[in-house]
Specification:
26 strands; alpha/beta; 400 residues; binds flavin-adenine dinucleotide
Length: 400
Amino acid sequence: AGPKVVIVGGGVGGCTAAKYLRKLDPRIDVTLVEPKAAYTSCFMSNEVLSGDRTIESITFDYEGLKRHGVKIISDRVSVIDPEKKQVVTDGGERFPYDACVVSPGVDFKWDAIEGYDAEVAETIPHAWFAGKQTVTLRKQIESMPEGGKVIIVAPPNPFKCPPGPYERAAQIAMYCKHHKPKAKILILDPKDAFSKQGLFRQGWSKLYGFGTENSMIEWVGAAGGGKVEAIDPSTMTLQAEIEEFQADVINIIPPQKAGKVAFASDLVDGDWCPVDKMTFESKRHPGIHVLGDASNAAKMPKSAYAANSQAKVAAAAIVARFNGLEPGDPTFVNTCYSILGEEHGISVAAVYRLDKETNVIESIKGSGGLSPMDASDEQRKREVTYAHSWFKNLIHDMMG
Ligand code: FAD
């Protein structure tokens, strides 16, 4: 029998690694452990909030991976034992490995905002894991009165999907523009700057009157007292640094850290998992590769495309090692699209290389950039099409 790889987490990083390991070397016995029967992608989940898509349209089963010969185990990993080289599940099973891939995504720091916890999040959703809460948030926006107010509480850096909260504001506005034109969406932010800020402000201005008296979207950053300290769910009131804010619908995106299993398995240093970026092998325990949001992959953002790119680098490195070869020099890619209106998309793209001396992933000069500020209406419209086709291609690449 060939070498065994056990994969923890059937999200972007885990699925991509599973598929590419099998494609690179079909002798490898690949087992993927994931508690959920299907994957609901966070990417494109903001479009569920505008009503442009259903939650079903972003939910995918694991049949494609099974066709590639990946064994799917429906269970949660409680801990990885690096001494015995075994993955241990809540169900009490043990899976021995020659190499382990861990891509559990993020977890929340629940103690950051007083009064907000996992139970409160059932009614005041974070919707930062796509699924039930995305649908709850959508329903709350639909049943909000005309002239109602939505507050989005943005998280501090680093967090998954840096442009996500700002795209979310636009997607909610896209719905309100047609159905509740007097609604207001306020973003309270503990930061003074955010991803693609110039492009967001321009798009919000054009589509939703940002910067005018009648703007549908308002943003309050750190300097303006945007950091939220506490919530009173019974009155739907937020206590921010300077003043109180009240709303009909509140969406709190808490501060983030690596997924629970990374902490249980001693893979973290601070909030995230340190890795050798040549191979994404853990700097704490050899033989375990940590990918995606849970890893510290600076300077790549925590995005689906980044996790997909890192998974291919890790898969190639694992296969090289099984065959007694040195891993090749990695390059990485990332593009993040944001859809601000039916015909208005923006993006940021980069191609990266590893600086081996500093173990920092640097973007290659001249390789990418932002969509131009002076793009034509046609270009903005085309970026929406690009975003949708990127989504289709990424899902196919990771699990199709
Ligand atoms: P995930 O995809 O989150 O997968 C983690 C998996 O691990 C899950 O299936 C989970 O159930 C499983 N798991 C966790 N713990 C265990 C355990 N103990 N045992 C077994 N399994 C476990 N990225 C983009 O590139 N483009 C976008 O447009 C974009 N839009 C986004 C919009 C929103 C609203 C959000 C929230 C995110 C968006 N992202 C986007 C970011 C993207 O979703 C993540 O960066 C990506 O999913 C990271 O992949 P991952 O493999 O690290 O984690």
